[in-house]
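Example 3.2
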Amino acid sequence: RAMGLPLICMPGVEADDVIGTLAAQATAQKLDVLIVTGDKDMAQLVNQHVTLIDTMKDQTLDARGVKDKFGVRPDQIIDYLALMGDSSDNIPGVPKVGPKTAVKWLNQYETVDNLMAHSEEIGGKVGESLRENLDLLIMSQALTTIKLDVDLDYECDSLHFTEPDREALAEYYRELQFSTWVRELALDESHLPDDTDHAPRDTPAVKADYNTILDAANLDEWLSTLAASELFAVDTETTSLDAQQARLVGLSFCVEAGKAAYLPLAHSYAGVPAQLPFDETLAKLKPILENPALKKVGQNLKYDAIVLAHHGINLQGIAFDTMLESYVFEAGTTRHDMDSLAMRHLDHKTIAFKDVAGSGKKQLTFDQIELSQAAPYAAEDADITLRLHQALMPEIKKAPTLLKLLEEIEMPLLPVLARTESNGVLLDAHLLGQQSLELGAKLGEIENACHNAADEVFNIASPKQIQAILYDKLGLPVLKKTPKGQPSTAESVLQDLANEGHTLPQLILEHRSLAKLKSTYTDKLPKLINPATGRVHTSYHQAVAATGRLSSSDPNLQNIPIRSKEGRRIREAFIAAPGYKLLAADYSQIELRLMAHLSGDERLVKAFKQGKDVHSATAAEVFGVAIEDVNTEQRRRAKAINFGLIYGMSAFGLARQLTIGRAEADDYISLYFNRYPGVKKYMEQMRKIAADQGYVETLYGRRLYLPEINSRNYNRRQYAERTAINAPMQGSAADLIKLAMIEVDSWLRKEAPDTLMILQVHDELVLEVPEDKLETTEVKIVELMTGVADLQVPLEVDTGIGDNWKQAH
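Structure, written as tokens:
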């Protein structure tokens, strides 16, 4: 109802019967009906006005479709289902009767009533079964029949869409954690300023004129057109989504909206038309693709750049990337894939890959797709990319900070990430295999310990069995319940129970942690080694995290645990090549330094400027002692306060982390704010800015949208407020490491081409450096990283050197 959809609830009546009644009413009025369902029972409703659509299978059934699918007419479906039965609906049917027999009988006798009248004519055991179960058949027939005469309070022609209740919708979306819909709803409201209206644009229809390039004359014509264009879109079609493994199949180009071409190079199905020679054609394209003066736009061009590099082409002139334009323009509010952006900004539904390649196990690689389908799909990609750029850039230009963010950080970073991914990192697969064996043995020991603690054998991976043992058998306190009212076995709950001194929850947590390390890293990483390079090549994602942080996948290197001994050991397997060492350079306490800069708090700024240990300095301020008298426990508590307040931690959260009382935690926070009033003022200011404009910004103008900042739900509003405080620091830290990557990459290419940047993880860069150049490289990297920004406090970089990542870190 909140969505503006009519809702019919009839106590004691099945939904099928309500649908059937409405369909019958519509048919009587000669109105066309489309029933969205995968339920075969509904096929009995099909007639000249009623059609079924199964959206899961993309299948539509009219009367002919029913006959083709089931072998009987729609008016025979009731009898067909009654004969077969349906265990999922508790319809018994006739034993031994399957679909073939049911179709055969109904084709011969037309109806079940006529079949029963001639049941003596049916021979064999199936005939005996029919005659013995006539009562079951009659009951099954009744159960299968959808009612068409339910007494409804509605007539079908009175059911209409109404305007949605946006306030109610927002509450439902938040409650049900439909975060994307919450953001979209907020964007439709007044949370965003007028100059960044994110609603879909009204765009004129564009007539597509797509060309398939199959002869030299046509290619030469397009090469001339590309060489003369101010900007053109380019896209590759390949054999794989993995850029390191993918081989080029073809390229598409677009020079103006609706005018695009596909150049097939390596389609290899039976009967494929003659294509231009692969190497010779790429040689003709190379000067254009490598010309930095010819500007290109693409969607996720990092992928295309890596693929082309494997074919000897260094893509240059990368001017714009529509994925990054969308990310800068509305990070955290929408998906940034082409299909989503085309619908959002162009109101255009693109050709889906599955529509040309199929899906599942039968999906074809692009080289197997016929040109009649491949060419329009590929050309559309380039066309839509150019049109998206034309829609997004005028909006970005309305906010100069967003334009600067795109031009000075995100776009220059793209080729840097492409090079870093291609560099890859060496792994010691033998060491990982050894660690897997050790982890397996340790997991077995922990599992036995769990069984001993429970005094019975149980499945340690089963939340249901864990729940029964912890709460029913051992009688541990129920700290939290699931939405269904069951005692929770979530990690946070087990951690609280472990903190209270309970053995089994601690063992289960340890088992989960080690099992994840084994399955995610020690078992999996060796399988990801590229056979051609002998290295692992992670894929960095620029347009995922709303804060601007990079994420990575295949493998995800951002989440290798650093706090546990076993997690740190995994880093031992990341090794340097012979004659090289790994150099790790990590920003020191970057978010605390950014808090000092953004808040301008005098004491905090002074502590960093004087090079003091900021946690000891905070302990001295909070506990009222000289900094040299701060003990280990006081520093630990001050560190928890420093980082806790950055992330908006409440007194309750601080109390839980330090295992102290709530009142004592309150006192610590009060003391902290008394000594650092600028921090408190900054936090209050961020909450107000967020509430007023719906977003906060980083130092470099990156916008972090907070659709729940004015929520009526206290918990959701409080979470948004905490995010408003932390996001500028986390986002600014992300911007700084990106700027550092750009500077370091530029220096490496000019001055140290034999040094490779191989990893970026959070605030850390890892490089593979020739042993004889370690000293000068270390000094230069620190200089570059500390020089990317001029803050009120100095940036500091910690470095380490080793044969492996653990040693270097």
